[in-house]
Structure formats: C-alpha cells, structure tokens
C-alpha cells in the first residue's frame, strides 16, 4: 500500500536548515498495523504528515497504492486522500460547536453521501465505538476517552483504507488508553491499515511491527539493538 523511496524532508527557516527525514526507505503492506517510535524531534510527525499527504517531501518518492503522490500538487493529493486516509490525533480535534452526531457526520457530508445513508452510518459507527448513548452531547461534556472514541468514529465513518494515529492515547489515563488501543486493534483485524506514532512501548505492542526513527533515519534491526543499550 505504501512505498517510500529515498525520501527526505528538510525545513528551512531564516537561520537554519533542519533535516527532519533523511533518505528514508520503507514499505507498509495493506492490513498491517505499524507503530512509529523514536525520541522527540526524530521526524515521526514529519513522516506521518507526508504519509497523510498533508505535506510533501523535499526529495524522494512516496507511492500510495502504486501511484506516486509525494510530488503531486496539493489539490491532487487532497483528492487522493479523500476517502482513502483519515487521522486520529492526541488532542482529539473535535469541533466544540457540534454535537457528537454532527462531528461524526461532517466528513461524510464532504463525500456527498446522502442524508439517510449518513445517519445510518453515523449511528452504526457510534455504536461500534460504544458511544452511541452520547450522540446528543457536545465534546466538552465528554471524558477524554469518550472524546477519543468519537474522534475514532469520525475518522473511520467513511471507511478509509489507511488510518494514521498520532499518539492516540497521549492524553488518556492508562485504562482508557487500553480501551482505545483495543478499538484500533479491532479495526485493524477487520482490514484497516493503521500507522500510529507513539511514545508508549505498551501501545506499540498492539502493532505488528515497530519502525524506529533516530535523527530522521530509519534504524535497521542492527542499529536498533545497538541503540537499545543507550537510554532515551
Ligand atoms: N514546520 C517546521 N519548520 C521548521 N522545522 C521543523 C518544522 N517541523 C518540524 N521541524 C523540525 O524537524 C525535526 C523533526 O520534527 P518532528 O515534529 O517530525 O519530530 P517528532 O519525532 O514528531 O517529535 P515529537 O516526538 O517531539 O513530536 C525537528 O528538529 C523539528 O524541529
């Protein structure tokens, strides 16, 4: 599903140039659950943003389902992302002015799905995320775990092929975090490909595979072993 070849991302500010990703190569197959780990500043978010087509690489290629997307125009990337890729964030990013039902319905509106179809899909996904009983509540009336379940419902209501999660349990206590990880695992076992950035070794255990980044580079198994002897 995903193939990245010799991909680099550099940020240029007035004084300095930062290499966030340096000549990365990686592949992710359909149906995989992959965790991306590494110390702060190693390039995890930069990689997730590129995978999600929110940002483009400075050099190198990104193939999504065999189509080169990294070097496409923004409008083209947006069109490919629509319906294929969705996101879950650490800070939930729900719209405070909309109730739970409307938050989850919104992305379906952009996909031009009819009203009765939307309603059926929203109710189904809210039930699956065990939050259907809160559909008339507003985000601020919910606990963190409930908000994240709504955010996951919103992200998966359009049945994306790829779900990108940026520290999805970062703002949750460990019990609620575990519930969220179980939901993500369930979605993955039904076929959704998941790529998750995490600092939590416990969350990473839910993944099939961990990609470790260090200073913008993917660590090989060998360098990862060497690295394990250093504390970070
Ligand atoms: N928009 C930007 N402009 C300039 N530099 C940036 C920008 N975004 C990221 N960087 C730099 O690129 C490097 C990688 O950042 P990135 O956010 O990808 O790391 P990260 O691994 O996600 O970190 P954290 O775990 O702290 O979120 C860092 O040195 C960061 O300062």
From TrEMBL:
Gene Ontology molecular function: ATP binding; ATP hydrolysis activity; transmembrane transporter activity
Domain annotation ABC transporter: ranges: 2-232
Entry-linked Gene3D superfamilies: P-loop containing nucleotide triphosphate hydrolases
Record-level GO cellular component terms: membrane protein complex; plasma membrane
Pfam families attached to this UniProt entry: ABC_tran
Keywords attached to this entry: ATP-binding, Nucleotide-binding, Transport
Family named by the database record: Belongs to the ABC transporter superfamily. Macrolide exporter (TC 3.A.1.122) family.
Name used for this protein in its record: ABC transporter ATP-binding protein
């Amino acid at each position: 599903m995903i193939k990245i070849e010799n991909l680099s991302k550099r940020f240029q500010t007035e004084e300095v140039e930062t290499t966030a990703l340096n000549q990365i190569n990686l592949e992710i197959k359909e149906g995989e659950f992959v965790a991306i780990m590494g110390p702060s500043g190693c390039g995890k978010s930069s990689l997730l943003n590129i995978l999600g087509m929110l940002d483009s690489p400075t050099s190198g290629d990104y193939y999504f389902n065999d189509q080169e997307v990294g070097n496409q125009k923004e409008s083209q990337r947006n069109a490919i992302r629509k319906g294929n890729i969705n996101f879950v964030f650490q800070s939930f990013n729900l719209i405070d002015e909309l109730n739970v039902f409307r938050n989850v319905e919104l992305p379906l509106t952009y996909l031009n799905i009819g009203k009765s179809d939307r309603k059926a899909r929203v109710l189904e996904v809210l039930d699956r995320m065990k939050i259907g009983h809160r559909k008339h509540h507003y985000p601020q009336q919910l606990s963190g775990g409930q908000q994240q379940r709504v955010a996951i419902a919103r992200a998966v209501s359009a049945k994306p092929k790829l779900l990108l999660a940026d520290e999805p349990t970062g703002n949750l206590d460990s019990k609620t975090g575990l519930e969220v990880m179980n939901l993500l695992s369930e979605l993955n076992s039904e076929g959704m490909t998941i790529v998750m950035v995490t600092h939590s070794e416990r969350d990473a255990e839910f993944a099939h595979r961990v990609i470790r980044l260090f200073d913008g580079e993917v660590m090989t198994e060998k360098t990862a072993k060497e690295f394990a002897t250093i504390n970070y």
